[in-house]
Amino acid sequence: MKNIQTYLLLIGIMIAWGFNVPIVKILVGYFPPVTITSLRIFTAGISVFLIMAFIQKIRRPSKEEWKFIIFGSLFNVVGHHFFLSVGLTNTTATNGALILGTGPLLTAILSSVILRNRATWIQILGFLFGSAGVSFIVLSGEKGLSGLSIGDLHIFFSILSQALSFILISKAAKTMDPRLLTGYMLILGSVLLFFISLWQEPKGFEGLFGAPILLWVAFFSSAILSTALGHMFYNSAIKKIGPAEASIFINLSTFFSLVGSAVFLGEIITSIHLFGLLFIVSGVVLGSGALEELLRKRKKRGVGQTQKPKKGFM
């Protein structure tokens, strides 16, 4: 399968993004949320530019590309990370992860409306399976849907902003290296977040440097691994397989967030979570196009074998 490397890379990104949710929950619980988020995103942006400088891929964007960078920064960085950091201060990491799991469905809907991409019946089935898996896990809580809070609403706005940004990134990536696009968006977005933090958290820098060393380890791992490298490779995957197909993998990050919440925050994983994971994985296989590509390959191989000319006698 020609996209197998992309699929494996996306799974790795989902592991990093999944574990990043409880890590961010820890960070915003100790530091002022918007201030620490702006610093984390800026660190990620610098990391991306250092990598791009090393491979000599830095260039100035065109006027048209700047439009995508600005709007991409507003949705992918400012909107997504602002609502995520604020939301996680008012809800659990588990709830946050589950709501983020609606991303594939939102991206598929927006992709159909804006890009007019029609999903196949297998992909639609995949989206339904993935959404069902997330729903099983949401409803497994003691309070079910009644346990949702204002923080959960902020998380929903966060994933809606990110879903919109994926559409913009898919268009911008036609002329610009998506990794470089990521760097510009992270830097611009972090600067905007910094000014928001000055207004919302005027004393945000007080106490930053007295934090335990383990918190700074969590900070840099989140900034470099999850945000910098994660967004670089994810945006590259959008260019290769499309925004809707790439977003279906976000369902996997839901499960890894639950694992991370259990490891770092002591939250409990139940049999319902594992049952939901079964649907989520099925949704990824169906919705990503992996199954269709495998079927096409087998069909092509079968046609090739039936059309092989028989050796004649001389």
Describe this protein's structure.
The chain is mainly alpha-helical and 314 residues long. It has a domain at 4-119 and 145-244. It has 13 helices and no strands. The chain has helices spanning 4-30, 33-54, 63-87, 93-100, 103-114, 121-139, 150-172, 178-200, 213-241, 243-247, 250-265, 271-287, 290-306. α3 (63-87) crosses α8. It is globular, with a radius of gyration of 21 Å.
Strand content: under 5%
Cα separation of the termini: 39 Å
Regions with little confidence, pLDDT below 50 for 5+ residues: none
Helix share bin: over 70%
Provide the residue-averaged pLDDT. 80
What would you call the shape?
globular
Rg, nearest Å: 21 Å
Main beta sheet: strand number and arrangement?
Answer: none
* Alpha-beta content class: mainly alpha
**Could you spell the SSE succession in H and E letters?**
HHHHHHHHHHHHH
Question: Quick recap of the structure?
Answer:
This protein is mostly helical. The protein has helices at residues 4-30, 33-54, 63-87, 93-100, 103-114, 121-139, 150-172, 178-200, 213-241, 243-247, 250-265, 271-287, 290-306.
